[in-house]
Predict the structure.
Amino acid sequence: MAEEQALTQEEWKPKYNPWIVSVPIIGAAFMFVLDETIANVALLHMAGSFSASREEALWILTSYLIASGIIIPAVDWFCKLMGRKAFFTFSVILFVCSSFLCGISNSLGMMIFARILQGIGGGALLPLAQAILLENFSISERGKAMALFGMVVVIAPIIGPVLGGWITDNLNWSWIFFINIPIGVTTIILIKYLLEDPPYARKQKNIRIDTIGFFLLTIWLVTLQIILDKGNNADWFNAVWVRRMAIVSVLAAVFFFISQLKRKNTLVDLSVFKDRNYSVGTLVQVVVNLVLLASMAILPQFLQTLMGYNAYLSGLTMMPRGAGSLTSVLLSGALANKIDNRLLLCVGLICIGIAGFQLSELNLDISMTSISVPNFILGLGMGFSMVPSIALSAVTLNNSQMTNAAGLQNLLKNIGGAIGTSLSGTMIARCSQMHQYEMVKNLNDLNPVYQERLSSMAAGLAQYTHPVTANYMAQNMMYKQLIQQSTLLGFVDTFRMFSIAAMIIIPTVFLLKNIDYKKEEQEN
């Protein structure tokens, strides 16, 4: 009987053409991923509107990530409780309504509340989109489906800062949220008429709330996100509150996984990690997402703090990465059934490594080309690594496992991205301090090069002010140059570390089992 039911699940086909059904699915996923980055460049404008500090305004970003992170692993459970189509529709409606609330917010408290609602509504959109696309398309076409999904996952975060900067400068920051309304309404209408639930994704009876699991998950993710956001400013584990919160976070995570393994009717099903392809593919995606979000956080910071770019121009420099991503995503979709997907994945990771080493050669006299070329190569790497890794991680799973597997995978990717973003800030600060400590030794009276440069600068300034003041100003300028150079080296070291991380993960690719899609399709 179980075998017959499993066969029915695998033989299920959508009523409409999968490419038509994918339109509202991609629209919903695009809104969520876009909103992860579009608000970043408008943060200072929103802080000014609410009379809040930058530190307080960071909760506008943090609250969204925390709320979505809590919902993501519970997606499969909510689908069983409500039915997948109903839950998907509810999530889009909540996301659209909360986007409107974000746009009309007149205080920081109201904005944070609206962003929490937006995160709750949006958290389910990405894993549901991934699961639905994998199920609706035949095995031989899953590479193309993941290419379509990859365009959203990789390109939307790159478009976000550019679009957000243009809207903020030319309209008002509220419109970065209002643009979700027409997209969302259209998506809801299309979902109503095009989307259907397969037998295993319909509403089930006697579904109980996993109160313990949900509570532990919430405590784990909330404390983890607070540590990652505020830890660097508090000097990490040198602060008592960080140590205490880290203990709470670790204990909550341990008890959460124990509860999910030992109890029945749990929030998530961890048995999917027994599948080697899923486990290894998820690990690769976590590392890629870590590098993606970390590089997106530090490169605009480098351009704005050291190169003098404004928010819009720094966002615009990310466009070559979008072009590279689009190119590799399309190529991945076209080549998915023709060559070994593991080779595509290796090419992607190698491209990320090469781009990281190129970015580690930056200096303060670079041209736009020096940024554009590595960004394009990094974009190629993102597409070539993300699309095959998603397809390979899911290809050995049953359709009935897709929703749960996608939820767990996206949860871990979010955590990886959050760790990468936080780690990048810490590495820049620590490496800059290290280089400053080493370089400041050269600024002494016994160094003839330093004395010559100082005398030259002081002589030039003495034409406009008192010699004593000129000497003081020259010393101050020399120290500022030292700070600038040490900060540059901090960025260089960070880019190099992320490049090495991408290279180290390459051997794990060969643990993946490649699938002959055509043969698999014939057998099914």
Q: What stands out?
A: Confidence is low (pLDDT under 50) at residues 1-9. The two ends are 19 Å apart (CA to CA).
